[in-house]
Amino acid sequence: GVEGFKHRDFFLKFFESKNSPNVIPIGTSGNVNQNESFIGVFEDILKTTNSTSIGIQDGDIWIKSILVEYLKGNKSLEDFIDLLSNQKGIYIPHTESNQYYFNFWEIENLYLMDELIECWTKDGKVLDQKTFQTILHKANDVISRQFLGTFLKKVSNIKIDYQQTPSMVEKLRKNIERIEKEIDNIQSIESRTSKLTQYLIDNNIWNWLPGKELKSHLQNLGYEFNESIVDFEKIKLSQEIRKILEH
């Protein structure tokens, strides 16, 4: 869709104009369970045309299985965080040599990276990291619901509408309660989710917070993103993103 091409164009800004990849946006309407079949079709097309390609998937596809294990109580928060911390750089290698995941939740997280936080302004005032962290704390519930929604998609194999309307929040809670009854000796899944969200915020592990919702949240608060103040040629993030061309 239109958003996919907007993200493609933004992603390409990090590359040199004479040495940039050919990016084909792929979307799955936010349903992480549709991803494998969609990618499979794309790979079949590549094989039949004798083409070569490097695929990059959103990080929520990579994280969904360990998120389920944590929220079910099968993995401690410490072990969960260790798995995240052990991932270095912008990309996580896939089991396939020509596929990678972003080492962050989704493409929208690029707008929230450390070097780009100052691009967000409101009433002429630049957003700093301390203010951003305060905003994140106040948005704890908003963030937690995205983790819960991803969890439910994975364990229930259904598409969950987990928007912030009261009716949808209540529907989300009922689904969680139903699943909790099927799991023995577990503390509240909502409690574990809140604990995870709080840890990520407190320790500035913002790359694993849901980027789409946070980007929208900032815009709803009146912040605007101005990329014109960034020298994409010089920032460290560009150097990291360009490494995909070295593989």
Brief summary:
This protein is mostly helical and 247 residues long.
Beta content: 5-15%
The share of residues in helices is 40-55%
Rg is 19 Å
How is the largest sheet built, in terms of strand order? 1-3-2
Question: In total, how many beta strands?
Answer: 6
- Main sheet overview: 3 strands, mixed
Our count of helices gives 10
Order of helices and strands: HHEHHEEEEHHHHHEH
Structural class: mainly alpha
Question: First CA to last CA: what distance?
Answer: 28 Å
* Global shape: globular
In round numbers, the mean pLDDT is 84
Q: Which regions have little confidence, pLDDT < 50, spanning 5+ residues? A: 29-33
Name the assembly state: single chain
Structural features, described:
The structure is a single chain. The protein is mainly alpha-helical and 247 residues long. It is 48% helix and 7% strand. It is built from ten helices and six strands; from the N terminus they run H-H-E-H-H-E-E-E-E-H-H-H-H-H-E-H. It has a three-stranded mixed sheet with strand order 1-3-2, with helices on one face. A three-stranded antiparallel sheet has the order 5-4-6, with no helix packed on it. Helix 3 (59-71) packs across helix 6 (140-156) and helix 6 (140-156) crosses helix 7. 24% of the residues are buried.
Question: What distinguishing features does this structure have?
Answer:
single chain; about 250 residues; mainly alpha; 3-stranded mixed sheet; 3-stranded antiparallel sheet; 10 helices; 6 strands; globular
